[in-house]
Amino acid sequence: MTIQETFAERHPSSAQLHRRAVRAIPSGVNHDARFLQPFQVYIDRAQGVYKWDVDGNRLLDYVMGHGALLLGHSHHAVADAVAEQATKGTHYGANSPKELDWAERVVALVPSAEEVRFTMSGTEATLLAMRLARAFTGRRRILKFEGHFHGWHDYALIGDRPPFEQLPQGVPDSIRDGMVLTPVDLDAVRAALERDGDVAAIIVEPSGASWAAVPLPEGFLQGLRALADEFGVLLIFDEVVSGFRWSPGGVQELAGVLPDLTTLAKIVSGGLPGGAVAGRRDIMQLISFEDRQRKIIHQGTFNANPLSAAAGCACLEIVKNPAVQKKADDLASRLRAAMNEILTRLDVPGCVYGESSTIHILLGVDCPEAKQGDVRRPNQPDAVLKAGPAPKLAQHLEMGLLNHGVHVFRSGGFTSWVSEPDHIAFTLEAFEQTLRDMRAEALL
Ligand code: PMP
User: Fold this and answer.
1) Residues 96 and 295 sit within 8 Å (Cβ to Cβ)
2) What's the Cα-to-Cα distance from 21 to each of 7, 18, 29, 60, 418, rounded to whole Å?
3) By CB atoms within 10 Å of each CB, which of 95, 220, 246, 272 scores lowest?
4) Domain range for residue 206?
5) Which atom of ligand 1 is closest in space to residue 207's alpha carbon?
6) CB neighbours (10 Å) of residue 218?
7) What is the pTM of this model?
8) pLDDT digits (tens, 9 = 90+) for 293-347
9) How many angstroms is it from 387 CA to the middle of ligand 1?
10) Do 266 and 248 lie in a common domain?
C-alpha cells in the first residue's frame, strides 16, 4: 500500500468528516497551515504529549497548539484554572484581579516590559505594536524582513513569503506605502533607513523567520538595536513563538538585547486565545487616557478575558522556572541529533535542525552537516530553509508520520515540558519507517 492508501485506511472517520467539512468550510480547514491533502485528521481529545483522533489512533504531537503548548495538552494546572474560572464567569465587561496578576507576571518575566496591553492573538499584537510605533514617532512606515511572519493582517503580510515583491491577494496596494521590506542584512537596513526618513520601527522575528527555520546571522539583533538607536527608530521583537519558550524572558533575555516593544501570544495565555504588546512605559502610555489628543485607539471584546487570564497565570507560574525550557530544549536537541543519525544511516538527503525546543525537517536537499549530530543551521540559502521540503515531500512526510503515530507541524514542530526520552524513541522509529515508506515510493 502507498502512504496515501494507508493514510486513507487508517483515517476513515476523518475522511468522512472532511467530506462534510468542505461543504461548510473552505478546503475544510480554518488555518492555512492545517491544510493537508487528501484531508486533515480530526482530533477527539488530547492530553500531555498525545492527541487521539476520531478513528482512535494515538498521535504523539509535535504541533503542540502551533507552539502555544509548552506544558503539553491540558496540563492540570492550566485545565484546573480554566475550569474554575468557567464556573465563575467568562466575561465581566469590567476588570478582574486575574488580568492584573497576568499583566504583572508578563512585566516580571519579559526583560524589556514595563507595561503590557492584552489582545486576542499575535496578529492583533503586531497590528497594535505597529500603530503604537507610528503614533509615538510620528512617522509612517514599518520596516520588516523578507520571509518574517507577523500574523495575517494587511501590513504583516507584505513580503511574508516569496516572491517577496508580490502583493498578497486582497491586500490593498496602498499598504505598500506603509511598509519597507529588506533582506535580513544590516547593510540593507542601514541603506533603507538612510533613504527613508519616515520609518517608525523595525519589526523582526528575533528567532529568525518561522521559529528559527531561517536563523539570523550572528550579532544581527545587536546590530539592529544599534541602527535603531542611531536613526531614532523603534525596535519591535515579535516573540509570539519565542516568548517564554527560548527562555522565561524569550530571545531578548538570552541575547541580552532589549527591544522597545515586544509582541506576545501563544504561551503567554497558556494555550488559550490571547496575545499582548509589552514594552517601554513612555510608548505604552499612548494607549492610556493621560493625553486624549495623542491617545491611540485599542479595543477588542475578548481582550484579557478571565478564561485566558486564568490560563495565562497558571502557565506563567510554571514557565518562569528555566528548568521547564531546558528540559524541552534538551529533548529537542537529542531528537534533532538522532534524526540526523537516521538520515545519514539511510543515506537520505536532508537535515533536521533547529534551536530551543523546535525541530525543522529539511528533505531532498544535500546537507553534509547532518553527519555532525545536532544542527542549528544547515549551510543552505535562506530561501531553501524558508521553503522547507518540496510540497510533495512535505505532504508525504506528514501523512507518513501520521500513519506511524506522529503529528508534525509544517515539517517540524515543538517539544514540550512533558516530552520524555521514550517519546523520542517512538518518534525515531516512526521517522525511520516513514523515510523507508517514502523511499519505497521513490520520493527520496
Ligand atoms: N508572529 C509570529 C512570529 C507568529 O509565528 C505568529 C503565528 N504563528 C503570529 C505573529 C500570529 O499570531 P496569531 O496566529 O496568534 O495571530
Assistant:
1) no
2) 18, 5, 8, 25, 32
3) 95
4) 76-319
5) 3
6) 8
7) 0.98
8) 999 999 999 999 999 999 999 999 999 999 999 999 999 999 999 999 999 999 9
9) 18
10) yes
